[in-house]
Amino acid sequence: GSTDGTLDIIHKYKDKINYWISEKDEGIYDAMNKGTKIARGNWINFMNAGDVFFDNNVIQALPFEQQYDYIYGDHVLENEVTGKQTIIKVKNFSEKQKIPFCHQSVFVKRRWLQDYPFDVRYKIAADYEQYLKARHNGASALYTPILISIYLDGGVSAVSGKTIIDEYYTITKEYYPFHAIVMKIYRILKHYIKKVQI
Question: What is the pLDDT of residues 14-33, one digit of tens each?
Fold first, then answer.
């Protein structure tokens, strides 16, 4: 049901697109679940509007031959207004605190997304919930020090500080209760300090 010109672009390149559908959904995670259901390849990556792979060699550089279910790497955060780019290294990111990657920079074995779809109750952090659910059911993950994507700052996860604090707390407390409380306090303080500075 897109009305922003997306369909015009799809029609322009329809000879290069195997499958597409335009209809109403319950948000980005519902749309991603729909894509996952029809996917037939071994690996899935979600690239949002405005985001791109870091370069043309990313796919060839990733270690798909290794026996892991999630392969993820670093990304470049690009400011939507100024165009300033910042390299984000995620090697030391802890899944006890937040999702250790942006979903533009992760490749997931198809079956894990089909067996554990995104929970559409979450509007911002469903990818974190999906990841923890899969990990606690045996999915393995590999970090590789490769810049995978350029991620345009200003997407849905940047919209509501309160929503992301609440969603992360709800998700984290199911798997890491102690860290959930600590991180909620930290995020509230960080959000308050940011508002005061503004």
Answer: 999 988 888 888 889 999 99
Provide the H-helix boundaries in 39-156.
Answer: 58-61, 110-115, 126-135
Q: Which two tokens stand for residue 179?
A: 């860290």
Grouping H, G, I as helix, E, B as strand and the rest as coil, residue 143 is: strand
For 101, half-sphere exposure in the C-beta direction (CA atoms, 13 angstrom radius) is: 29
Per-residue pLDDT tens over the stretch 146-172 = 999 999 886 555 556 788 889 999 999
Q: What is this structure's pTM?
A: 0.87
Structure tokens at 13: 């390149």
Calpha distance 145→90 (Å, rounded): 8
Reference 51, options 77, 71, 70; nearest CA is 77
Q: CA-CA distance, 11 to 197, in Å (whole number)?
A: 46
Q: At what angle do helices 161-175 and 177-197 cross, to 10 degrees?
A: 170
Q: Which two tokens stand for residue 74?
A: 């670093």
Nearest to 103 by CA among 4, 36, 171, 22: 36
